């Protein structure tokens, strides 16, 4: 079966999970004591919905999710692994900052083959497969055409409780004067999709998990973006090392700049 055969159920699961997150978001406030427990419940509720909907259609498929979900594929057809982040941008979600999403990726025989990312606040559904174009709410998207790093808007992910001496901080500081601007937003999956649709020109991190990247990487690649490790080597979803750009000369420029840290 082609990756597109799995796309409809992935989209249904992402939207349903987004509705779960919205339903939980008004049950707590950022000042409530113990709000992290509520967020944990929202994470699990979102993940359960995704796994249930996908398993109903594909009971032999495997799962790998942020909230302790690890189930091997039992399919005789191929090795299917759904890589799920039920709430990417947890800190933003806790504080009511509207930049979080649901991310679903599908790996078939070790190859990232499908990605769906849903932003329930903006009702934006990003999607792509390895054999179909990248779409936003059904419309084709592509990366920006900004050709130079000094004109670019970039985003970086930094680890929580980062020490000032951390190489991730040094990379951020080195990139600041080289670009038009560098931001930190709190949702890797949305960052990837924003590169895919041209809202951002580049994004990097050295602290991500597979579920942060899987869905968005497929979408960004199909939109024309370049995805590698920080040093320009081949991307590996199992390695917490990601550099993604719009596919222009910015990529090589960023590789060079980030190596200075």
Automatic annotation (TrEMBL):
| UniProt-listed InterPro entries | IMPase, Inositol_monoP_metal-BS, Inositol_monophosphatase-like
- The yes or no answer to whether the keyword Magnesium is present is yes
Its cofactor is: Mg(2+)
Question: GO molecular-function annotation terms?
Answer: inositol monophosphate 1-phosphatase activity; metal ion binding
Record-linked CDD domains: IMPase (cd01639)
EC assignment: the record states 3.1.3.25
Keyword list (alphabetical) reads: Hydrolase, Magnesium, Metal-binding
| Record-linked SUPFAM superfamilies | Carbohydrate phosphatase
Q: Could you confirm whether the keyword Cytoplasm appears in this record?
A: no
**What PROSITE patterns does the record tag this protein with?**
IMP_1 (PS00629)
| Residues that hold Mg(2+) according to the record | 66, 85, 87-88, 212
> Record's family?
Belongs to the inositol monophosphatase superfamily.
Q: What is the recorded name of this protein?
A: Inositol-1-monophosphatase
Biological source species: Stratiformator vulcanicus
Q: Which gene encodes it?
A: suhB_2
């Amino acid at each position: 079966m082609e990756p597109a055969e799995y796309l409809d159920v992935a989209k249904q699961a992402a939207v349903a999970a987004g509705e779960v997150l919205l339903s939980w978001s008004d049950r707590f406030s950022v000042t409530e004591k113990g709000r992290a427990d509520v967020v944990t419940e929202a994470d699990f509720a979102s993940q359960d919905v995704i796994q249930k909907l996908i398993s109903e259609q594909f009971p032999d498929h495997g799962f790998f999710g942020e909230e302790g979900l690890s189930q091997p594929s039992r399919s005789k057809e191929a090795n299917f692994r759904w890589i799920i982040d039920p709430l990417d941008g947890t800190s933003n979600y806790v504080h009511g900052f509207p930049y979080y999403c649901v991310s679903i990726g599908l790996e078939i025989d070790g190859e990232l083959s499908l990605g769906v990312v849903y932003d329930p606040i903006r009702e934006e559904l990003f999607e792509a497969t390895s054999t179909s174009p990248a779409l936003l709410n059904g419309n084709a998207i592509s990366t920006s055409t900004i050709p130079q790093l000094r004109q670019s808007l970039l985003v970086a992910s930094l680890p929580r409780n980062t020490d000032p001496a951390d190489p991730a901080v040094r990379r951020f500081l080195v990139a600041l004067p080289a670009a038009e601007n560098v931001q930190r937003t709190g949702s890797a999956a949305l960052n990837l999709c924003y590169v895919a649709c041209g809202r951002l020109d580049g994004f990097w991190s050295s602290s991500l998990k597979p579920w942060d990247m899987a869905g968005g990487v497929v979408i960004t690649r199909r939109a024309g973006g370049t995805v590698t490790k920080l040093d320009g080597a081949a991307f590996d979803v199992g390695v917490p090392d990601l550099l993604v750009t719009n596919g222009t000369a910015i990529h090589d420029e960023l590789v060079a700049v980030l190596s200075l840290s």
